[in-house]
């Protein structure tokens, strides 16, 4: 009998992972021969300058809950990769186990392995400058305390955010206390448009991105040789408390300089590369180059599985070329905000050149093949890295693989449609799945052929075929089990950590159903305060259920006493739009309030009726029209089906 809540049979929910197949073992052996595993320079670099660490890199919050630990990854102490992990990925996973405080150069230190990202600490004349503050407050506080333990207590002189991803700014309150924030004496420096992008990139499509991120990062997978081993950039995503602090100083242009606690920084802007707002810097005093997340020890993502705007490989390459022009031959050490540093002018310049050419090659060759008429999947099947890049460990696709990065380039230029009319308006998965099953002679015929191809190691097509069967017959346990086995073998063979996580999590969900998770929490006050009011209206617009709004027409005026903003919010033609700086004479209702009060309501710290009753909101007109509008809003689920049909219809 099938459980309605998960779509899996009770006696199959505990299915364990399988062993690697003979064909996967052969692929792993071929990888060992193809790549220069005798080159151990990265292991020397990853351990260089070690000063001390926390046992197992374990960090807890005030309630004693573990928010970060490398203890579950103890299995990576084995040098030899097991058959269930690609040996190249195993190598990267072991390198990412180095943790603690490291001296990069006298006066420059890094905390690595206490988060997926690094904290870089640069000593000034009187204090220390903190570059990137990790994901969580707890992690940042532990990292800074580790630095103090080995270098002595010194004041934080400034905080620098290199770019707009939360693992680089979320822990800022762990290094800046209330007193420091109250008097504003400590600068918080970030690239131009930091706030706009830090709060917007994951807001509008946030629920879908969070669910897809489970496939990218594998947080619900067991840690182990048959489960999650790494994320390419680092081990995992940290838990803990996150707060966003608004920068007090923005770097506006390449060539901008700042003297911070007596130390001069030279900046280079790199927008629309790895992040929509990102920057690099060079410190002449230390001859230190930091290229943020644009030159790390893997081929990065041009389009992460969680979703994002497609990153521009061409400008990414140009920024690295510009960095060479500005600082080539000048740096004694280069450190990024992931992975380990590189030392020596020749090695640094060579790595930058190779990374520059990696992104340029992916861009140019995708466009070349595209202009020959190849589709995205055909380009991915055709393209091969040149020998000079193929053998560079830092160019391997642990986080962003060449086979999916070329698809991102294709999407950036041509979009999702490959120009073949058959793909213009195909049937959705359930409907097409039923027809495929019918055309292929039914479920039994498909399973028989799939088992034969599975035995031959043809896992890619077996997965394609069985996916149609699962969408046609989601309760067919034989189909689910064999599709899960196919995903698993593909995961074992994958060099990319994100591919491995996606395949293995897909297999787990087919066997066990979706993980149980609480409902989406209300957005935090700190995040809301960082949003522009127009962004809040945009967010409200995507929650509007169009079919339920059919025939509705609502006009509401809004005046905010603390910001001086005025808006007209209009529901018409099943779309919610707004006009800024205006009021409608014939509005159904008008609301006057502080913007902070609106934040309290959205954060569910109060309600509109309570705010009206307490005098925080003044209303003229028909206030029930707002309630009518809010009744048309969807609440988004934290979880939804991905490798099987939706169990609940969405309208």
From TrEMBL:
Its EC number is 3.1.6.21. CDD domains: arylsulfatase_Sdsa1-like_MBL-fold (cd07710). InterPro entries: Alkyl/aryl-sulf_dimr_sf (IPR038536), Alkyl_sulf_C (IPR029229), Alkyl_sulf_dimr (IPR029228), Bact_Alkyl/Aryl-Sulfatase (IPR052195), Bds1/SdsA1_MBL-fold (IPR044097), Metallo-B-lactamas (IPR001279), RibonucZ/Hydroxyglut_hydro (IPR036866), SCP2_sterol-bd_dom_sf (IPR036527). Its cofactor is Zn(2+). Signal peptide: none annotated. Gene3D superfamilies: Alkyl sulfatase, dimerisation domain, Metallo-beta-lactamase domain, SCP2 sterol-binding domain. Pfam families: Alkyl_sulf_C, Alkyl_sulf_dimr, Lactamase_B. SUPFAM superfamilies: Metallo-hydrolase/oxidoreductase, SCP-like. The keyword Zinc applies. GO terms for biological process: dodecyl sulfate metabolic process. Keywords: Hydrolase, Metal-binding, Zinc. It is an enzyme of class 3 (hydrolase). This is Linear primary-alkylsulfatase. It comes from Bradyrhizobium lablabi.
């Amino acid at each position: 009998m099938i459980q309605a809540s998960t779509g899996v049979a009770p006696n199959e929910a505990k299915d364990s992972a399988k062993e690697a197949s003979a064909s996967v073992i052969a692929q792993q052996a071929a990888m060992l021969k193809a790549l220069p595993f005798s080159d151990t320079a990265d292991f020397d670099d990853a351990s260089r300058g070690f000063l001390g660490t926390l046992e197992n890199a374990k960090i807890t919050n005030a309630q004693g809950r573990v928010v970060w630990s490398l203890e579950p990854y103890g299995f990576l102490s084995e040098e030899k990769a097991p058959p269930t992990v690609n040996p190249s990925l195993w190598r990267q996973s072991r390198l990412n186990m180095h943790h603690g405080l490291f001296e990069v150069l006298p006066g420059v230190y890094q905390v690595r392995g206490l988060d997926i990202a690094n904290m870089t600490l640069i000593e000034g004349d009187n204090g220390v400058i903190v570059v990137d503050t990790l994901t969580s407050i707890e992690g940042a506080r532990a990292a800074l305390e580790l630095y103090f333990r080995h270098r002595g207590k010194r004041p934080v002189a400034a905080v620098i955010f290199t770019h707009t991803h939360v693992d680089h700014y979320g822990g800022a309150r762990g290094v800046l206390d209330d007193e420091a924030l109250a008097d504003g004496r400590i600068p918080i420096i970030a690239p131009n448009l930091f706030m706009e992008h830090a709060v917007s990139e994951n807001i509008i499509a946030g629920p879908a991105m969070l669910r897809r991120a489970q496939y990218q990062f594998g947080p619900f997978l067991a840690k182990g040789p048959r489960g999650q081993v790494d994320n390419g950039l680092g081990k995992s995503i940290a838990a803990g408390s996150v707060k966003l602090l608004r920068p007090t100083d923005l770097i506006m242009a390449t060539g901008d300089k700042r003297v911070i606690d007596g130390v001069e920084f030279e900046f280079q802007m790199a927008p629309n590369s790895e992040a929509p707002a990102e920057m690099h810097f060079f410190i002449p005093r230390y001859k230190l180059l930091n290229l943020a997340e644009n030159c790390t020890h893997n081929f990065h993502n041009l389009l992460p599985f969680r979703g994002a705007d497609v990153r521009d490989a061409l400008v990414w390459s140009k920024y690295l070329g510009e960095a060479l022009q500005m600082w080539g031959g000048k740096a004694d050490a280069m450190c990024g905000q992931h992975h380990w540093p590189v030392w020596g002018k020749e090695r640094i310049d060579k790595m930058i050149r190779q990374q520059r050419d990696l992104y340029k090659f992916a861009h140019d060759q995708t466009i070349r093949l595209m202009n020959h008429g190849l589709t995205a999947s055909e380009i991915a099947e055709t393209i091969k890295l040149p020998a000079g890049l193929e053998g560079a460990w830092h160019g391997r696709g642990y986080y962003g693989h060449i086979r999916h990065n070329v698809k991102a380039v294709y999407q950036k230029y041509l979009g999702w449609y490959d120009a073949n009319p058959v793909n213009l308006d195909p049937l959705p998965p359930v409907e097409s799945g039923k027809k495929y099953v019918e055309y292929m002679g039914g479920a039994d015929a498909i399973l028989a052929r799939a088992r034969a191809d599975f035995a031959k190691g043809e896992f890619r097509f077996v997965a394609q075929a069985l996916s149609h069967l699962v969408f046609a017959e989601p309760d067919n346990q034989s189909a689910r089990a064999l599709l899960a086995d196919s995903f698993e073998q593909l995961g074992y063979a994958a060099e990319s950590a994100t591919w491995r996580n996606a395949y293995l999590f897909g297999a787990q969900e087919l066997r066990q159903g979706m993980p149980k998770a609480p409902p989406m929490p209300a957005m935090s006050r700190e995040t809301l305060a960082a949003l522009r009011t127009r962004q809040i209206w945009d967010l409200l617009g995507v929650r509007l259920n169009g079919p339920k709004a059919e025939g509705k027409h609502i006009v509401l005026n809004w005046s905010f006493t603390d910001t001086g903003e005025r808006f007209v919010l209009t529901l018409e033609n099943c779309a919610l739009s707004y006009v800024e700086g205006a009021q409608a004479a014939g509005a159904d209702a008008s609301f006057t309030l502080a913007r902070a009060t609106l934040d309290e309501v959205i954060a569910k710290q109060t309600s509109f009726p309570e705010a009206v009753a307490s005098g925080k909101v003044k209303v003229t007109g028909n206030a029930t029209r707002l309630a009518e509008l809010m009744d048309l809003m969807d609440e988004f689920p934290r979880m939804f089906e991905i490798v099987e049909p939706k169990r609940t219809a969405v309208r």
